Each structure stands twice: as structure tokens, then as C-alpha cells.
Amino acid sequence: MYSFKIDCSPCSPVLVLGGCLAKKDHEFVPLHELLSNAEAEKVLKSLNAKAENLPKILESDPQAKKLGAKVGAIVKISREDAGNEYEYYRLVIRSPE
């Protein structure tokens, strides 16, 4: 097993989420952007998809919260791997109670 200390001070950039550690602004967290309605429509048309067919992201996700994303919004996630940039899209859904 791993042993580590968790800094739970109010100034700590580390969030404890379900026993996992996540840094919202860490270099390995990909860029998240909230799409406007016009941008979302354009993306869905280019993908020939409906919003409900996209993978989901919870409204309570740290990045969704940071963006102020509401249920039904679409978030664009940009990742870079070996010099290539990839774009992913997620539909914001309500977090379970």
C-alpha cells in the first residue's frame, strides 16, 4: 500500500474526491472550455450526433464547477499527446444526490 499525507488546509490546491487526490490546475489536467450554444450546435452537426449521445461529465466535476457549467452544456476538452492535439466533448449532467 501507498502512504501519503493529505494537506487539507484551506489554501491547499489539492481536493480530496472520494479518496482520490486531484489538482484542478495541474499541468496534466487537460484544458476544459465551455462551448457557447452556437459552438455546441456546430460541433454536434460536424459529429452528426445529438448532445445526449456524447460522453458525460458531472456538474460536480471540479473542472465543470470551475467553468460554471450547467446541466445540458457541452464542455470541450483538449489533450496533447506526442505533439498531436485531440479534442473531446462532454455533456454536463446532474450529479447524483
How would you describe the overall organization of this protein?
A hairpin with a 2-residue loop joins strand 5 and strand 6 (84-93). The chain is an alpha+beta fold and 97 residues long. Residues 6-21 have low confidence and may be disordered. The chain has a domain at 30-93: Alpha-Beta Complex (Eukaryotic RPB6 RNA polymerase subunit), CATH 3.90.940.20. The longest helix is centred in the middle third of the chain and has 11 residues, at 37-47. The chain is globular. The protein has a four-stranded mixed beta sheet with strand order 3-5-6-4. It has a two-stranded antiparallel ribbon with strand order 1-2. The protein is built from two helices and six strands; from the N terminus they run E-E-E-H-E-H-E-E.
Q: Write the H/E string, N to C.
A: EEEHEHEE
Strand content: 25-35%
Mean pLDDT, all residues: 80
Report the count of strand segments: 6
Radius of gyration over all CA atoms, rounded: 16 Å
| CATH fold-level assignment of the domain at 30-93 | Eukaryotic RPB6 RNA polymerase subunit
Strand order within the widest sheet?
A: 3-5-6-4
Q: Which structural class best describes the helix and strand composition?
A: alpha+beta
- Can you summarize the main beta sheet? 4 strands, mixed
CATH class of the domain at 30-93: Alpha Beta
Give the overall shape, derived from the CA principal axes: globular
* Superfamily (CATH H level) name of the domain at 30-93: RPB5-like RNA polymerase subunit
Q: Summarize the amount of helix as a percent range.
A: 10-25%
Uncertain regions spanning at least 5 consecutive residues: 6-21
Give the CATH architecture of the domain at 30-93: Alpha-Beta Complex
Assembly type: single chain
The termini sit apart by 31 Å
Number of helices: 2
